[in-house]
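Re: beginner question about structure tokens

> Can someone show what the tokenized structure looks like for a real chain? I only ever see the sequence side.

Sure, here's an example I had lying around. Input first:
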Amino acid sequence: MSLSKFSKNKINVDLEHRQFSERWMIDYLFVEFNATATCLICKEKVAVLKEHNLRHHYTTKHAEQYARYEGEERERRVAQLRKDLSLQQSCFQRAIRESDAAGGASYARCSLSCWVKENITKKECCFYVEDGREGICMCGYPKVQHTDEAIKPEEFMGEQWDPHRHIREAPTDAYGDISFGGIGQKTSKYIRVSSNTRVDLLYQLMTEQWKLHPPNLLISVTGGAKNFYMKTHLKDKFRRGLIKVAQSTGAWILTGGTHTGVMKHVGMAVRDYTLSSSSLEGQIVTIGVATWGVIHNREALVHPEGRFPAHYYLDEQGQGRLSCLDVNHSHFLLVDDGTNGHYGAEIELRGHLEKLISDQPLGQKESGVKIPVVCVVLDGGPGTLNTIYSSMMNGTPCVILEGSGRVADVIAHVAGLPLSKVTLALIHRLMKKFFGEEFESFSELKIIEWTKKIQDIIRMPELLTVFRIDEEKNCDLDVAILQAFLKASRSSCNMGKQNRERQLELAVAWNRVDIAESEIFTEESQWNSSDLHQAMFSALVGNKSDFVRLLLENGVCIRQFLKEEDTLLELYTHLPSCLFLRKLAKRAPAGSKIALSDVAVEVRHLLGSFTQLIYRPAPPAQHRTEATSFDISVTLPSKGSGLEIPCFEAEKAPDTVWDPGRDLFLWSVIQNKRELAEIAWEECSDCIAAALAASKILKKLAQEGGDNGEEAESMRELASHYEKQAIGVFSECHTCDEQRAQKLLTRASPSWGGATSLRLALEADDKSFIAHSGVQALLTQIWCGELAVDNPQWKLPLCMLFFPLIYTGFLAFRRDEAMRREAERTEEEKLVMDSVIGFCKDDRKKSNDGDEPPKSHVCPLNCWTRMAGLFTCPQVKFYWNIASYFGFLWLFAVVLMMDFQPTPSWREILLYVWLTSLVCEEVRQLFHDSDGFGLQKKAKMYIKDVWNILDVLSIILFIAGLACRLQTNETVFYVGKVVLCIDFIIFCLRLMAIFTISRTLGPKIIIVRRMMMDLFFFMFLLSIWVVAYGVAKQGILIQNEERFNWIVRGAVYEPYLVIFGSLPASIDNTQFSMDSCSVNATDPLKPKCPVLNEDNVPVFPEWLTIIMLCVYLLFANILLLNLLIAIFNYTFTEVQDNTDAIWKFQRYELIKEYHSRPSLPPPFILLSHIYLLITHVFLRRPSQKHKQFRQELSQSEEEELLSWESFMKDNYLASLKQDKSQSVEHRIQDTAEKVGTMSELLEREHEMGSAGMVKRLTRLEEQVCQTARALQWIMDALKSQNFKSKEEAPLMACAFKSIVSEPAESGGEDQEKEKTHHFYARQHRYTGSTLKRFPVPEEKVPWEVEFTLYQPPVYNHQEAKDSDTSALDSHRNPAGRTGIKGRGALKSLGPNHIVDPVITRTEGGVLEFLALWDQAEGCWKFPGGPAKSGENLPDRLKTTLGVKLYQQIKGKMESGAKEVFKGYVDDSRNTDNAWVETTVVTVHVDWRSILAGNGSKMGSMSEQLQWHEVSSKIAMCPYQKEALRLVAQLHHINF
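And the corresponding structure tokens:
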């Protein structure tokens, strides 16, 4: 029993003292893992956590190799060794997890197989028809790969092969995991799908079956499908930028999936990232969408039940016309159209998949933001140009890499030119230059089509971004990719607040603070706090601390963000998996949502029962439906007036405050998120209490979560960090103002359940904080009570004996010093006022006569208060109790030695009364609960104190001895005296408690306690040797000893005495005597004789017993005793550094005990106990709380103190930042970054130098060419005037004009000013049909320009009388060619007239107009349409507004309408022979009076009508937006 108790004490002391020191990691290269010291070099573990063991291991094994590393070099070595150890441990843990997950993986495969069989199909040919090659079907597959039904089909006999009819769906037979072998054994997911598969099923497969997290960005990489050359620097930029944007934003990369062309470059980028990254969490999702029929070695992927894994080998040499899969892609969608060897089957499905993903919501909250899609283009041919054109027409931004070749370079060279300069001849030259020999196979019609598409592409500069490696602003591809989408969204029609928030939401999802700083939070942007709340929520939930800090710097107000209770509840709902969430789930009722009341209860459990609930508790069940909104208190903090909510029933709810900084900090701490918690702590007003509360919560969570594990270790590290933060801020406060700093320690913090900072530090076991000089100064002040701190110690005993000395000024009181300081301060203020304000003598005299002297805030001490201050001083109480305790021991000793009679004497009765007073005091201490812990908590705290245990033990023994002493039986009477004598020993040991207050002896008591623990364990080790030798000796010497007492003496007692020099005589025959023993053990007072021979001489082997004695003395007396001395020496050295902090920490309890103790010492303390019993039990008066340990401040004092604390916190953080910036490590890092920047600038300067030279030569060549043409023109002009020369004119050779694209920004304005031809009337497809227009480049639009290849199709949506093609030539579009003939979707040939009324009003000083939403076009339009001749309003407006409103507005139009525009409209329905012409008229109305006259009734389409501000930000078609601009000019407002 005692051994287990000693073991428990030993464990507690080890946890308290034998903690791993941080300097051991640098000095001895050890790190603590799972409470065990592990060597960073050899990975060996040291069982006993002692510095000696670590030093010995390092000195003997590694010192020779690592002693030469010192300072920062040694720290870098240690950091690298720690990283290697962490990586190794993570590998072991991963292996264990993989083993445990084997069963789960099998279930997942079965689930995937069932889902695939139900939803995914492939395509196969069901009708074998040879294509002219023997044994090869029209589908491309050989005959042997067809089923018997396909070779001899009965239902298709006599038919021609048709892919739409003779290719059918079948369950897919290729899916699972694909292993590529090689280094790393990379495994990817794959599946064979039909080209007609629903894309929503594919998205479900990727997100639910493959467990891919939905992307924050989709990067579609397209370009050359064949291998192409790319410059090394551009290739590095592409790979690094692509991976950076994918890794930082959580993007999916979508490619063709094969090991050729641009897909190969993407795969190599992923490979480089995988090799350089040691974390599997940052895996890049690279999805390859390839055609199944062109995959080489695809037979290895086929299995009806799936392959897990399928072994696939890269065989580039034997692939022929086929392609191999790229080994670096993570997922493959293999699209099957039923054919073999035909490329392009995946294009349509890939486009649909990209469209579906782009329609998915971004993130978890319904903010309306969709997943963005960006197209990245490298190289490419005609197919890539079609992809770019389709993407940009669908609103997808594209990033072109200049220098990658072919189509990408063609577009990059014309991107910055005016549209008029992008001619057929220019495109012809560029394609010839960049396509080389491939250009010869292009027809002229194809070049015309491509020119038209390139012109349409550069018409949309907001969707086109050219990445030029020689431009400084686009030095990184990842920035260019993200800027491309932001640029597209900025230039969209919606330029208002919603669009800015959408951009910010994307930047948060991408976690790109640099993009947000440069592109969103610009100097021109103005943000309200409410505009940033959605982004703030996403950043907090996503643990994006950099974004949280950026948002706070740009206007987010925490008070406004957490103003609504639902926001905080939503944050707790989105807590990641952590220990606090699991504890909260157990506490909350099953099936119910998390309530703040549950959070409050759990936080109180973590902080301690002495605190109040920080949120209002949940109402009773009968009130829950009526008062659910009162889960959280709405009492405003100190700066606002509180709104008190009535309590439920008659129970008073605890006071709670609304503190948003506290709420955010607490939410971050319980997740163990260090960066978020640090930012939130900086926003806390009560920062010291918050840091200490965080330390308590984290230590409690680490304890309940188990001491082992990385999470618990990180919690303890974070708790230590916040203890240091609290110390730092308090040091700053204490340096500035000691009194205010001490007030911070004892003020009750409303934000943390009314707990004080001092109490929180004690409960969190923050010894370093308690050991701070400021905290100790407060404790010393409380210890001295009303007496001054600087009184000499010898004066107190004199005043205790001769108390009249206190009236002579012999002792200094704090109040006297305070009065003296206040008088001095008042005198100084008076002198300053007199020196500043010059009064005349009369006024001064009048002022002096009339003014009363200033009243002092400190009252002087009288005789009674001085005496009360002396005897209520905890230090004086302590001295009286010491004297009383010595008197008790003296009386106890006198009774035991001199006056212990059968009948108790007056001394013994006095002793019993004295002990009764001690018992009463212990009971009072147990039930005295000034901090509100509760009896159970108080009892636990009482038992944890070793001195209290000694008190209880001594009292119990005294009661037991007294009970035996009062018996008449002499034996029992004597037993009672023995028990009391033993009790006297314990009472004497209790005397050591008086030394704990001493600064000199107090730490030594702690060392003694540690040494006692070491001694107990040493005795256990020593007992092994004692018992081993004693039993062996006793067995050799004595034959069958049956007396138990002599067995113990021989086996234990005598061997123990040998250690101290008492050598036994029984082992030496020369000293044997028959008188010293009993032969047959008949004499109970003598030991039994050893085995004797006939001559009565011992027969035991004397040589053996002597050797055993020598060996025993060698180990026990020399080895073990010296080991004990070494242990004591090591313990003293180890504990000496920490004893001061531990003593200061334990000093608090002693000071608090004597502060609350009655003034009278025992036995007179019984009078105080009787008084307390009467007042508290019978009169039921509440106990007074100690203001020295806890004080409630008024609202004004609270505000002033917290403001000062926040100011000191800012100073502390500024000093930390300055120290960090001046540290050697930071300077080295800063220098390294500058060197890297300079190196990159020099490299870029070299590249730009050569590129600049090429540009200058090209411009010089252009100027020479222009000069040559000008001279040629002069020569021609002179010849026309019949001027002749003696010599023939030289031939002017015009140099080839190189086209160099300028930045898009410089040419953008010229392009806007340039007059272009109609655009919408020349779109690729005619609206409402699948018919393609004939491509008409910009220069071929006018009818005057010859276009011999122009052969447009004829299209009439509905056949009519004028459908005869002979009548088409009589109607010609005045704006030029459109690429299609006929009437199209219009009603008649020639002009089709419409009327667009612009109805405006003034509402709130803002000009608004009436707009109608067009669902088909996706934009707002004027409520116009065809009108009868002479009418100003279209007929459709009558249906929209109603007849009465229509008539009133019609009257307004007839009287005050103004014509804004009349003429041709660039409409997508226009053809060469039919077009739209409009008349835009405007009228300003008083809408309220019109509605009042109409009874506020509108037509059937009134819900689609809305009033909008006249602004350029509204989404409208171009010609109507231009008309709206003219309307704004009429009303003299900015557009």
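Each token stands for a local structural state, so reading them left to right follows the chain. The chain has a mean pLDDT of 79.
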